[in-house]
């Protein structure tokens, strides 16, 4: 019987909570029984240091296959591809340096390349420091933009998902005042098309039911509070419907999520960042997953940052990482 291809977890910021939540998940047995064995793209000595946070001693030994080493904590092992050799070791909680930023980017680059060449079925990313990556000379705001560039994709969609709610964003990290100018019929339609396609491919939904939020209060109240609904959102929905997509709306955001969490829709397509993430994090603060739709590879991520304020304390929750790993494995199986 052939060995299942691995799923890569990038270690993220070595001074953040990424290393310790990976170790925490390992110790809890959260990687047991996965359909695709995890391989960490990172630094074994940093993971060994993270084990000490939990008063556990980790041994490092040679490995074969996609990984070159593995860390062993008692009876549990975790394969690692060594992509950095820090000396001295990074201090959890301290601001990362440019050398740490280069390592973070190397983890992502290697994982993306392995997914693209078919050596791995997907990648799960621990949080990074965008400032450190920029200091290292990378001109990318974050994971998503770097992966889109490496995969040759112009348009991707950020989706946040939990057991009760999925939200997809038309615009992401913009000042609120810039959102109306960034919206267009084409951007909204493209978001609907990519969301529909990947929910079908990776989530087993034959005809995803997509609800679309309005931009303005009360869906503009007949243009009293704005006309983006009539000029942009409604035409995009009609275009999607003509393409066979089950898209409905625009609905006032103050009521839509009530019905979405009851199961009436499979995902909500939102116009801007906080419109989507406030309800998502209200329900899935610890176990929400960030999914990049529109890539030719599977990529999920934790739905939180580096958390330098608690890094090194062992108190960071691993729930989002575990949920991201499990979701990536299911997506890989569904999409194969």
TrEMBL record:
<feature type="binding site">
    <location>
        <position position="218"/>
    </location>
    <ligand>
        <name>a divalent metal cation</name>
    </ligand>
</feature>
<feature type="binding site">
    <location>
        <position position="299"/>
    </location>
    <ligand>
        <name>substrate</name>
    </ligand>
</feature>
<feature type="binding site">
    <location>
        <position position="273"/>
    </location>
    <ligand>
        <name>a divalent metal cation</name>
    </ligand>
</feature>
<comment type="subunit">
    <text>Homodimer.</text>
</comment>
<feature type="binding site">
    <location>
        <position position="290"/>
    </location>
    <ligand>
        <name>substrate</name>
    </ligand>
</feature>
<dbReference type="GO" id="GO:0050570">
    <property type="term" value="F:4-hydroxythreonine-4-phosphate dehydrogenase activity"/>
</dbReference>
<dbReference type="GO" id="GO:0008615">
    <property type="term" value="P:pyridoxine biosynthetic process"/>
</dbReference>
<dbReference type="GO" id="GO:0042823">
    <property type="term" value="P:pyridoxal phosphate biosynthetic process"/>
</dbReference>
<feature type="binding site">
    <location>
        <position position="144"/>
    </location>
    <ligand>
        <name>substrate</name>
    </ligand>
</feature>
<comment type="pathway">
    <text>Cofactor biosynthesis; pyridoxine 5'-phosphate biosynthesis; pyridoxine 5'-phosphate from D-erythrose 4-phosphate: step 4/5.</text>
</comment>
<keyword id="KW-0479">Metal-binding</keyword>
<keyword id="KW-0664">Pyridoxine biosynthesis</keyword>
<keyword id="KW-0520">NAD</keyword>
<keyword id="KW-0521">NADP</keyword>
<feature type="binding site">
    <location>
        <position position="143"/>
    </location>
    <ligand>
        <name>substrate</name>
    </ligand>
</feature>
<protein>
    <recommendedName>
        <fullName>4-hydroxythreonine-4-phosphate dehydrogenase</fullName>
        <ecNumber>1.1.1.262</ecNumber>
    </recommendedName>
</protein>
<dbReference type="InterPro" id="IPR005255">
    <property type="entry name" value="PdxA_fam"/>
</dbReference>
<dbReference type="GO" id="GO:0046872">
    <property type="term" value="F:metal ion binding"/>
</dbReference>
<comment type="function">
    <text>Catalyzes the NAD(P)-dependent oxidation of 4-(phosphooxy)-L-threonine (HTP) into 2-amino-3-oxo-4-(phosphooxy)butyric acid which spontaneously decarboxylates to form 3-amino-2-oxopropyl phosphate (AHAP).</text>
</comment>
<feature type="binding site">
    <location>
        <position position="281"/>
    </location>
    <ligand>
        <name>substrate</name>
    </ligand>
</feature>
<dbReference type="Pfam" id="PF04166">
    <property type="entry name" value="PdxA"/>
</dbReference>
<comment type="similarity">
    <text>Belongs to the PdxA family.</text>
</comment>
<feature type="binding site">
    <location>
        <position position="173"/>
    </location>
    <ligand>
        <name>a divalent metal cation</name>
    </ligand>
</feature>
<keyword id="KW-0963">Cytoplasm</keyword>
<dbReference type="GO" id="GO:0051287">
    <property type="term" value="F:NAD binding"/>
</dbReference>
<keyword id="KW-0560">Oxidoreductase</keyword>
<dbReference type="InterPro" id="IPR037510">
    <property type="entry name" value="PdxA"/>
</dbReference>
<dbReference type="GO" id="GO:0005737">
    <property type="term" value="C:cytoplasm"/>
</dbReference>
């Amino acid at each position: 019987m052939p060995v299942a291809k691995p799923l890569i977890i990038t270690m993220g910021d070595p001074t953040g909570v990424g290393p310790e939540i990976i170790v925490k998940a390992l110790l809890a047995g959260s990687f047991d029984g996965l359909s695709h064995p995890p391989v960490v793209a990172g630094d074994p000595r940093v993971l060994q240091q993270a084990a000490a946070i939990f008063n556990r001693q980790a041994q490092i030994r040679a490995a074969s296959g996609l990984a070159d080493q593995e860390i062993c904590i008692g009876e549990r092992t975790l394969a690692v591809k060594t992509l950095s050799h820090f000396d001295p070791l990074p201090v959890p909680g301290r601001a990362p340096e440019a050398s740490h930023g280069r390592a973070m980017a190397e983890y992502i680059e290697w994982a993306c390349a392995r997914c693209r060449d078919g050596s791995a079925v997907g990648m799960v990313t621990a949080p990074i420091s965008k400032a450190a990556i920029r200091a290292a000379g990378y001109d990318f705001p974050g994971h998503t933009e770097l992966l889109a560039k490496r995969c040759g994709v112009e348009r991707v969609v950020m989706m946040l998902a939990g057991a009760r709610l999925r939200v997809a964003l038309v615009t992401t990290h913009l000042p609120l005042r810039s959102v109306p100018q960034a919206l267009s019929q084409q951007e909204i339609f493209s978001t609907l098309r990519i969301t529909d396609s990947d929910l079908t491919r990776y989530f087993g939904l034959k005809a995803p039911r997509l609800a679309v939020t309005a931009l303005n209060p009360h869906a503009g109240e007949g243009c009293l509070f704005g006309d983006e609904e009539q000029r942009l959102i409604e035409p995009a929905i009609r275009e999607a419907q003509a393409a066979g997509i089950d898209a409905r709306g625009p609905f006032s955001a103050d009521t839509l999520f009530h019905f979405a969490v009851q199961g009436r829709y499979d995902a909500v397509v939102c116009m801007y960042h906080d419109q989507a993430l406030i309800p998502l994090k209200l329900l899935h603060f610890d176990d929400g997953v960030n999914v990049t739709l529109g890539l030719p590879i599977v990529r999920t991520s934790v739905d939180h940052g580096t958390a330098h304020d608690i890094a090194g304390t062992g108190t960071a929750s691993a729930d989002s990482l575990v949920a991201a790993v499990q979701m990536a494995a299911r997506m890989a199986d569904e999409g194969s």
